[in-house]
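Blinded run. Sample ID left blank on purpose so nobody reads anything into the name before looking at the predicted structure. Input follows.
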Amino acid sequence: SQPMIVNPVPHDVRVGQVFDEIRNMLEKARTSIDFVEKFDAKKDEPIDPKPFEMLFSREMDKLVHLVGPHLMDGINSLKDKISDRASVFEADLLVYLKKKDNKAADELLHRWKY
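Blinded prediction complete.
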């Protein structure tokens, strides 16, 4: 019997598959960030940090430049969105702490943890 020969997947197909995976990861991360405002610590699970860790890694930066440099706009936009939300959370937390509203501060910290 002859060995089975498997043709390799063409380069452009592999690049397209990687591009689609990165785009899907970016969309999942965006959706997660948008959900933060509705987060209820009593019933919702924390978001998965892996898409964020992967999207913001140095290795991903190199990969994105190879398979779809325009995806960097979406990644940078996500970083800006996270930074803006962190600034708002920090300002709100300081207000709650100054007012000694520990319950509101605790709820905010749970949302941030999400």
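Unblinding after everyone has recorded impressions. The helical segments are 11-35, 50-55, 58-67, 71-98, 102-113.
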